[in-house]
Amino acid sequence: MHRDHLDELESESIFILREAFAKFDNIAMLWSIGKDSTALLWLARKAFFGHVPFPLVHIDTTYKIPSMIEYRDRVVREWNLQLVVGKNEAVLGEGRTYPNGRATRVECCTLLKKDALQDVIAQYKYTGIIVGVRRDEDPTRAKERYFSPRNASMEWNASDQPPEFWNQFKTDFAPGSHIRIHPLLHWTELNVWEYIDREKIPVIPLYFDDGTGHRYRSLGCAPCTGSITSTARTVPEIIEELRATRIPERAGRAQDQESEDAFERLRRDGYM
Amino acid sequence: MKPADDTQAVAASPRRQLRLVVVGHVDHGKSTLIGRLFHDTGSLPEGKYEQLVAVAQRRGVPFEYANLMDALQAERDQNITIDTAQIWFRTKSREYVLIDAPGHKEFVKNMVTGAARADAAVILIDASEGVQEQSRRHGYLLRLIGLRQAVVVVNKMDLVGYSREVFERVAAEYREFLAGIGLEASDILPISAREGDNVAKRGESLKWYDGPTVLEAIEAIPDRDSVIGEALRLPIQDVYRFDHRRILAGRVESGTVTVGDQVLFLPSGRTSVIRSIERWNAPVVNQVSAGEPVGITLADQLFVERGSVACHVPHAPTLTTEFTARVFWLGRTPLATGRRYKLKLVTQETECEIKSIEEVVDASTVQTIPGATSVRTNDAAKVVIRTRRPVAADLFERIPATGRLVLVDGFDVAGGGIIISVPVETAVAIDASANLTQVVRGERHFRHGHRGAVIWLTGLPGSGKATLARILERRLFERGTQVFVLGENLRSGLSADLGVSAADRTELIRRVAEVAKLFAEAGVVCITTFTSRRRDDRQHAREIVQAGGEGAPFCEVYLETPLQNATIAYEPPTQPDLSINVVEQPVEESADRVLERILSTIR
Hints:
The structure holds 2 protein chains of 2 kinds. Chain A contains 8 helices and 8 strands, in the order H-E-H-E-H-E-H-H-E-E-E-H-E-E-H-H. The radius of gyration of chain A is 18 Å and the shape is globular. The model of chain A has no long low-confidence stretch (mean pLDDT about 90). Chain A is α/β, with parallel strands linked by helices. Chain B is α/β, with parallel strands linked by helices. Chain B has 13 helices and 28 strands. In chain B, strands 2-3-1-4-5-6 form a 6-stranded mixed beta sheet, sandwiched between helices. A 6-stranded antiparallel β-barrel of chain B has the order 7-8-13-11-10-14. The longest helix of chain B is centred in the last third of the chain and has 20 residues, at about 500-520. At the A-B interface, helix 1, helix 2, helix 3, helix 6 and helix 7 of A face strand 2, helix 4, strand 7, strand 8 and strand 22 of B.
């Protein structure tokens, strides 16, 4: 049987997912509803023969584009998933957010996403969190490991990461810390769409032109996520578009652009 | 849920991809080369170049191509690469994953992390500094990691006035070093990454040089070969109980597994038959090969757990508690004898200790350190490792995936190594319940990876028995099968007293059968090359070999020929196990057929 690049990517991700599930007692997968974590969810169903044997954690900032929540709840029902929703109720109650004008974009991300995730991890005592980040998204993610330790305060020690080779990962860690597992690290944006196309994975329609000549390329919170000009209405059309473009994927994500190392600082503090 | 879209799928164009790591001493220009290659091939994302220039201006520092890869603030502040990064780029012929590796001694663990993912390497050397500590260490580590393909780039030619003499001196020195460690560079070329000379296009300043550019040199590296391998290695990752099925999950690391195969699980030594291959949202298959993830169910309720390795009996790995490995050490505390580590070999894990350190190598000079008794960070050694529980292992040169290991010290992955020898006397017997004082057939079977058998060639003189036997012997031997041919060697010694009477001929065949039986019992495939003209004699030989509770397989192969020989009353077999026509079929083809038969007989 001829195996193409998608088969290779898939094989590696499935291997990693199974390693993670075998080595950690209490594990969860982050699901942002976006294309990457949805493709990752699909890979989990492949790895575990149609099942997803761990909960999915969705960090709800309440500023998500409304159709994302509808889509989320429908998929949870139809695929029989366990869903854990994390929310920073305290901050939302106080209104200390960017859209309320009482936090910068980066502070808002920290409070509503990073802190909310930290609370969920503490509450459920997760020792492993599976996240769908990719190396080609951002230069700091390009430096990531498949199994990436976070200390008790969730910090990423980017300048002293463990060695990782021959499909042997860091699975031993001190109490209190946790490991982020990144099974999609070696995929590119184009690969993800090619895989969505091949597998016919249902993705949220926000990625397609809704008739206005715009679509989302990267999904986040409504106030900080811009759409791009595009008439792509199908997955193959998106693939065509990506093969030609030289514009970076996260160009529409405003929080990354606040300062030169804004995204790195967010990630060091525990952002995905 | 509705599929994403119902339109015709874009034909997923299978793309060729090469993973290339760029290594070398600190400050020799690795990140700069990658940045320059991106710029000159028009691969930079839109606005990226302008952004990097603006950032440099704002910080009041000169623009550096290296900043494309050095994304961490600490890296930009110090102008060094701390951690390995990857970036994608495409040419007309294939896709590249460029892996930038740090050149600073402190970050060797990150260099190894990057290099271990690569198919080939670009090794950079600064023309003005020449071969340095990490130039040598990286070359040596590439070898230990198992990389074979390398292009050497002598950078910063602008700093030495583009001198041909300097280039040739550096190139010669490094070529000699590589030869010493058994690595060969496919190309050695002069460049200036900063000035863009000879990176994607030829430079005006290097007129004396007529070899390839960096781009041409990497385009010339062959694709990674996806070797499936002959021997099955399926390390089990986990056992799931979903939908009332017990599924063993893993990835085939070598070989092929097919529904109906009998497989041996190590270290337990138990066997079962593959009932099904399980997949989700994929067509049903009855066979999977190296590189593919798989779930299998078995015909019986065998207890299998994570760490078991499924294999076929004829090509089983060695089960051992002791082996010799070449290791590189990245741990903070030195590797020393007597200390306990955790050993990981694919999905197998066991406590281990370093029984002895045979040789310590200073990886910066690749010289043996005389009298060294421990291994410092970033050095290498040849060590004997003793494991608490038996592990199924292979020589790295034969099956890389099951021939390499990592060592964990405390919570940290601290070293890696490749297995270079497995002492025969420590190989653990397959069946724990077997009588250990007497070596039984099952143990030989396990040790050799196959059973003994008698392959009885029969046919008129001149039909080609001896020729066929020699071909079979060579082919089996090359596969690692124990094999021996009986012919003239038996006639002239043991049977020197026999003449050519009918009675003597019958006695000769009896002796051949008895000797062949002993060979078969010793686990050897014994091929006999006697005319054995009488049907009764051959029947008797079969009975001798198959006698007893543990009789060996007997396979009668008839070499058919239209030759007539009036002086020999040859009685052709009525029901040979295999009949080959030596006239119509070339001897190599005949050998293929017999070989296939032998292999299925001795599994």
